[in-house]
Amino acid sequence: MEKNNHIPIRNIYYMLSYAYQTLNFSEYKQIGTEKFENIKELYAKILSIGIPVLIRGGLSKDYISVEETSNVIKGKMDINSTIKNNALVNKKVAVVYDEFSENILLNQIIKATLVYLSRSYQISKKMRRLFYGLLPYFTEVSDVELSLNLWKNVKYDRQNIRYQFTVDVCRYLYEQLLLDESSASQMMKEVQDEQRLSSLYEKFIYAFFKRETNYNVSHPQIQWSVDDDFVDALPVMQTDLVLQKDKKTLIVDAKVYSENMAVRFEGGVAKQKSSNLYQIFTYINNWEKEADETVAGMLLYAKTTALNQPNHLYHIKGNQIIVVSLDLQQDFSGIKENLLAHADQFFMEV
Length: 350
Prior knowledge:
The protein is α+β, with helices and mostly antiparallel strands. The chain has helices spanning about 10-20, 40-55, 80-85, 105-120, 125-135, 150, 165-180, 185-210, 275-285, 330-345, and strands at about 60-70, 75, 95-100, 215-220, 220, 235-240, 240-245, 250-255, 260, 270, 295-300, 310-315, 320-325. The protein has a 6-stranded mixed beta sheet with strand order 4-7-8-11-13-12, with helices on both faces. The protein has a 3-stranded antiparallel beta sheet with strand order 1-3-2. This is Restriction endonuclease.
């Protein structure tokens, strides 16, 4: 079975299930019983179900600005464009107006993805035909060139949040196919795969504790504890996960790397990644503690195939820092047991 960064496809499915509760819907239940040879098949299957679900619910619309030359004045007349384009010769004027349209970025991304997948020979012929057959539903949507930059401009709100899962999976699959087609070095491919998995890992860890435990679960930004209120240019401290219960707070930072520990030279002693320790230590020290509150930090790495894996407990200047790794290759029951045990390590101690 092909693995994504050494993680079995079945566990990628479970991670998606937690990170996006959409997979609990009846339309997706058949996926849980199927076997997939590679991650591309899983993503393609999800999209083959998710995109029709969006279509049946009606494609989202929003007001977009339209600029055109017309012999009917509507919206605002653009005098400069009218003169520049010499529109008056044809008894027309340039106008700018808002139109309630399906031609929005989210629909453009899905259409571009459908075009790309319908032509990709890395997808089965059956899937290519299915994706091609969905394109007529997007005739009112402009064609755009598919690129990773498109996702950078995506914003969600209450009206379009139903798109998030499908649009994210569009990106996961596009990145996977792009990576396979690329002639980049194996090292660069591993870095890109690591970045893609990191986002899913963070979402999964947060959703797991939200669903499976009674902790107060959040992921707030931590404010810098400055002496004079001057915070200009200070970096944002965005937590991945904060667990709270009974005056105890555990700040968790989820990490995905090809190597979880640093070795300066072959055969050298493995050390913790200093930047990660500095980060979690800074989070702890800037957390605004309440009276009698105990605050600790945890670095939760996704376990790699390397011999040396972090499994340490430190007490530094009165602060407890737990550094552990989670084996994502084991059965999911083991993943669940390990995650609960890692949290209990802090919350159950007397």
